[in-house]
Each structure stands twice: as C-alpha cells, then as structure tokens.
Amino acid sequence: MDFLNAIVALSNFVLIPAMAYGSQLALGALGVTLIYGILRFSNFAHGDTMAFGTMATILFTWWFQSMGLHLGPLPTALLALPFGILATMALVLFTDRMVYRFYRVQKAKPVILVIVSIGVMFIMNGFVRFIIGPGDQRFADGERFIISARNFKELTGLREGLAIKTTQGITVVTAVIVVIALFWFLNRTRTGKSMRAYSDNEDLALLSGINPDRVVMVTWLLVAALATIAGVLYGLDKSFKPFTYFQLLLPIFASAIVGGLGSPLGAIAGGFIIAFSEVFITYAWKKVLGYILPESLEPSSLVQLLSTDYKFAVSFVILLIVLLFRPTGLFRGKSV
Amino acid sequence: MSPAMKNTSLFALVALMIVVTGFVQSWNTAILILNMGLISAIMALGVNLQWGFAGLFNVGVMGFVALGGLATVLVSMPPTPEAWSAGGLQVIAGLLCGVAVIVITAMVLKRMKKSHLRTLLVLTILIVGFFVYRAVFDGGVAAVEAVDPASTGYLGGLGLPILFAWPMGGVLAAGAAWIIGKTALGLRSDYLAIATLGIAEIILAVMKNEDWLARGVKNVSGLPRPVPYEIDLQKDAGFVEQAASLGLDPVTASGLYIKLSYSMLFAGVLILILVMAQLALNSPWGRMMRAIRDNEVAAEAMGKDVTRRHLQIFILGSAVCGIAGAMMTTLDGQLIPTSYQPLRFTFLVWVMVIVGGSGNNFGAVLGGFLIWFFWVQVEPIGLWLMQVITSPLAEGSALKEHLIESAAHMRLLTMGLLLLLVLRFSPRGLIPER
Q: Who contacts B268 (Cβ-Cβ below 8 Å, separation ≥6)?
C-alpha cells in the first residue's frame, strides 16, 4: 500500500507536472530548432514571439467570453488559439519582410542576425507590455480538473491523492497531435521535404530548384504556430506574464542544444530531459521517501536537492555538460 | 567635416543635452544622468572590448554587473562577528568541500582513461560529494542566517574602504567569465551567447537566495561611501559660507557637491579605462585581436592561439563590466538583487555599443552617454506624446487611461527600434571603427 502511495505521490508532484512542462518546452524548442535549421541563427525573440501569440489568444478569449462562446469543460482559449496563431503568423511574416530578409539577402554572419533578433525581441516585448501590461493574466476557464485529488482518494482509498489538471491533459494531448502533424509534414509532404533538403545543404537545394523564399515563409508560419501553441499551453497551465516568457528562453535554448540544434527529434527529447531534471532536482522528496523507506530511515529534512529558485541553474548545468562533452547535442545537430 | 570635428561635435551635443536638462528639469536630474552615463560608458567599453575587438557575443552583462555589486558588500560592509562565530567557518568549510569535489572530479577525468569504471567513479564522487557538501554547508547557513535576521543574518564584509570594492568587482566578474569562457569559447558563437545568458540568471539566483552571502532579497543598505555625507557638509560652517557666496542654500549645495564628487571619481575611472583600452587597441595585441576577429582561420594559420586569446579578452571585458557594476552599487548606496533586469543591464548596454560604434572606444563611450540619456528621457517624452495623442479622446475613457498608463513601456519599443535602425542603415555606428 505504501508503495502505491509513493507512486501516486511521485506521479502527482513530479511525473505529471514534468510531463506537461516538458511538452511545453519541446514545442518551444521545436520552433527554435526550425529557425536554426532553415534560417541558421539562434532566435532570441522566440520567447517574446510566444508571449505575443499568447497575448493575441488571450484577447480573442476575452472577446469570445464576452460574447458568451464556450467550449463546455474545455478552456475557451482553445477556440481562440487558431486566431492567435493567425495573428502571430502575420506578425512574424511582417518582421521577416521588414527586418530579417535584408540580412538574409546580404548573407550576413549568423551573429549579426542574433543581434537583430535581440532588437526584434525588444520591440515585441515592449509591444506586448504596451497592449496587455506587464502583470499576471490567468485565462483558463472551464473544468479545472480531469480528476481531483479528493475524487481520486475516494475512488481508490489511498492516502495520497492524484490530481490531473485539465490544462495538463490538454497540454500533453495537444503536444502529441502537433508533433505528429509536424513530423508528417516534414517527412511526407513535398514542402516539408524541400525544407529538410534546404536545411541539409542550401546550395544543393537551390540547384535542384527549391524556392528559398517559399521555404523561409513556410518555416516562419510553422514557427509562429508552434510558438503560439507552446505559449498558450504554458499560460493555461501556469499563468501569462511577459517577463516569464522572456525567461523561458534559457530552458528552451538548453532543450534545443541538448537535443542538437537543427534536429526536431532532438528538440523534443531535450525538452523532456530539461523538464524532468528541473522537476526532479527541485522537488522535495520527503513525502515519497517517507513511503518507501522503513520508518527508522525516514528523512527528517525536506530532501530537496536544490531550492526551486535554482531551476534555471539545472537547465544551465545540463547545457554546460553537453557543451563540454558533446557540443553537437544528443542527436547530432548541426556541426560546431 | 573631418572625422575629428564630427566626433567632437557629437560629444558636445550630448553635453549640451545634459546641460539643457539641467536648465529645463533640474541640475539634480542632469548630474544623475551624467553619473549613470559615466558608468554606462564603462560598461559599454567592456562590451566593446569583447564585441568590437574580438567579435565575442556576451549577453550576460547583467550577471557581471551584479557581481560587481556583490563585491561592494563583501568588501565594504562591517563583518558580523556573531555570524562568523555561529557558523561562518562551517559555511566556508562547506564551500571548500564543494570545490574539492569538483577538483577531484576534474582530476579523475583527466588522469583516467575513458571507461565505464571512470564514469561510475565520477558519478559516485559527484553524488557522495554533493551530500557531504550539503550536510556541512546547510548547518552553517542556518546558523548564520539565524543571527539577528532583521538587520544582519549574513557574514558581512571585510570592513575595508569601498573604493577597494571596485577592483574586487572586476576580479569576481573575471572569475565567472573564466568558467564560462573555458566551456563555451571555441564553439559556435551562439553557444557563448546562450551560456552567458544562463550564467547571468544563475548569478542573480544565487544573489537572491543565498541570504548568508549578502542578505538576498532583504537587500543590503547603508553601504559606506567614498564621499562625505550631506548632513556633515551642512554642519560645516566653511561649506555653508561658500555655498552662500555662490547663491545656493546649503541643502541643495551639499546634494550637488556629493553628486559632483561622484562624477569626478567615475570620470577618473572612465578615463583610465579608456586610455588603457585605446593603448591596447593600437598595440600589436590589439591588431592581433582584430585580425582574429576578421579571419579566424587565417589568424590560426599564422600560429595564433585563437581560443586562448578569446578567453583572455572575454575575461578582460567582463572584468570591466564588474568594475562598472561595483561603481553603480556604490552610487546607489545599497544592493538590491531584484533590481537587476536583463533588458536594462544586458541589452541596453548592447544598444549603446552598436549605436555608438562597435570597435571604436570613443564610440562606445558616446553610445553610453547618449543611450542612457534617451533611456531616462524617453519616459517623460512618451508620456507627453501619449497625452497629446489621446487629447481628443473623452476624459476618463478606458482607452485613454490604458494608453497613458502604458507609456512607460515605450522605452523598450524605442530602444529596439533604434537598434534595428542603426544596424540597418548605419551598421558601423555613430563613430565608426577606423
């Protein structure tokens, strides 16, 4: 019985939150990795693109709510999501036309593009704060739990409860659908194949008649969709605050690099590696260990390896280890 | 117009803007802008050393600046003897344990051949070492933080004059830069960017959470000053008389006197660093750096150790940022870890360097003053602009209130726009590299 309790406590506090967080990171890292593969620079504005997409979705959500539109038990934000994606697509295509294209035509060094993306980040950040303000926004509505801790306890008679939030369920399901759709697109469609060809060898792709403008446009559209979905899922699960989205940049980059920049599969793996290690290391293990260990060995302290404030340190240390021992990442991304 | 004329007039323009601020707003504001402008110029010099000379992309300026701030506390605050006797030595012992574990791990990695045994050994050392470290360290921390937490609860500093903290800030920043440089230099340029972004967040996390070090988010206030206090000046009969002869009342005069003394100190440091940077730029070493920046492969073929040179200049530039950070905390008189924001301390400095002219020290200095001036003044200008734009709207309308409230965020927009415009239309900056 104690063993079951330990498993339930572990899933409740570690496995399920890490699963949801990992899906959000993976979607974010996929966006970073796509830009890296096709456009060949690290996009520092990605966190703020996520923030913009989420903001657009929140605005549509409010509008729908005021009209009385609901999705029943599901959050209204899901209904608003496609519109948020469209708004973000418009924004990234506009920035690409106004800003990035000039440097692409010039064949500027990647580091220049990185600096340019910092300028874009500034503008997007200011824009988002300008419209929605720097404060916290919660926009999840509908049913809060798929199964609440109390129901679970009544159902099973265990001492530990297992709560699954609706948003966590939605996150994982959406992430799976999005990833399947993305891989189908990259591997099976003509456009997807031309994107991969362009990423592998630009000159060869151009020789075989692939239209670079089209590849770049499709990439931005995909990135806008991924960023908005990742941002909305994160915002539903926790809350929306422009500064938090800027800070997400670090774990997202860590995920992309750990997996191997430019490798979509790596981005997903990296997202889960970062999320699980973050939650594992900052979780206080006292409860779980209390169930497993015999009474005499029961820990007196919280058994927390690092305080939660150091969660960025976790992604950072993993990043350093990967850079030291395997700079191309686990899935052999672009070379150094 | 010759370049020298143009540069002089650019600097004169900035000076004029500050003087106009003095007349229109107040001299207090003007000198405050000047002081922070001096500090910003030093930060910009540090970043220019890395980016302009060597093409290294450091987005962790905030972390190095914050380390400088930490140095002021560690050097200048009086020590807390109760805390030292309660657990100070234990904290130090804990830290030494941590260092020992890392050193032993590094030695095992270096001495043994790659094998499963080595991996196993390293993992065991790390895991056992971590628990030993936590066991020693946590007890000490708890004891130290329990000592009068409302006013101290930390180990205190060395009680030395605060001017010693400035070089110390540079040393701390250099240490952090060494760790980052060792791992991330020699890889792709973006990796250094991401690694520095990370180290800045971690330095901030440490400063916010390690209460035994510098009281964390409880802040350290009342840092000693390198200049006299206003109150003492106002009591000084000679000073009051002199102020009266200039037609100033003693309170205003003492405030201005203090701020101007800071300006003198900061200007001294700025000139010193500027001269050194200028000498370095024109020395064989500076030429080698630029050669490496412009063509790494060719420089390597000529027998230059690119990674080592990069590490060297990365440490130097970070140290300059650390010195500036210590100076800024000295000016504030308090250390507030929550006030360090990446947009303000990292990316704004980047805007300064790019707009001023990367690769040119005078450009970086000009950018420091100019951008800092705009950063301070954009807010009132934005507010005024918003009021003008929204004046046709009805009084008390929600849109009007929202727009006026949001005017504060105009800064980020303006800075981003400025950066993009300069990069696009004048990528070499206001004072280009020669």
A: none
Residue B254 shares a structural domain with residue B334: yes
Same domain, B85 and B75: no
Give me the residues of chain A with pLDDT under 50, please.
Answer: 335-336
**In 3D, which of B167, B117, B103 has the Cα closest to residue B325?**
B167
Q: Using CA atoms, how far apart are residues A74 and A141, in angstroms rounded to an integer?
A: 7
Chain B touched by A302 (CB under 8 Å):
no
Mean pLDDT along residues B344-370: 92
> Measured between alpha carbons, how far is B169 from B67 in angstroms, rounded to an integer?
6
**Torsion over CA of A35, A39, A41 and A47, rounded to 10 degrees?**
-30
Cβ distance A312 to B190 less than 8 Å, yes or no, reads no
Q: How many domains does chain A have?
A: 1
Chain B residues inside the 8 Å CB shell of A122: 343, 347, 412-413, 415-417, 419
Which residues form the domain of B115? 80-155
Q: Which of A118, A245, A315, A324 to mutate to test the interface with B (most CBs of B within 10 A)?
A: A118
Q: Residue B372: in which H helix or E strand, if any?
A: helix B361-390
Of B91, B121, B155, which residue is a domain's last?
B155
- ipTM comes to 0.86
Residue B347 forms contact with A (CB below 8 Å): yes
How far apart are the C-alpha atoms of B79 and B215, rounded to whole Å? 13
Residue B115 above 60 pLDDT?
yes
CB-nearest to A126 from B198, B342, B413 is B413
pLDDT reported for residue A87 = 97
List, in order, residues 6 or more apart from A97 with CB less than 8 Å away. Answer: none
> Which of A55, A59, A51, A15 lies closest to A31 in space, CA to CA?
A51
Lowest mean pLDDT among B255-259, B276-280, B286-290, B411-415: B411-415
pTM, full prediction: 0.89
Query: What CATH code is carried by the domain that includes residue A242?
Result: 1.10.3470
* Residues in B 20-79 with any Cβ partner in A closer than 8 A: 55, 57, 59
Instruction: Identify whether B433 is part of a domain.
Output: no
The boundaries of the domain holding residue A184 are 2-325
Total domains in the fold of chain B: 2
Residues 6+ apart with CB under 8 A from A166: A73, A74, A75, A140, A142, A143, A144, A145, A146
Q: Are residues B61 and B102 in the same domain?
A: no
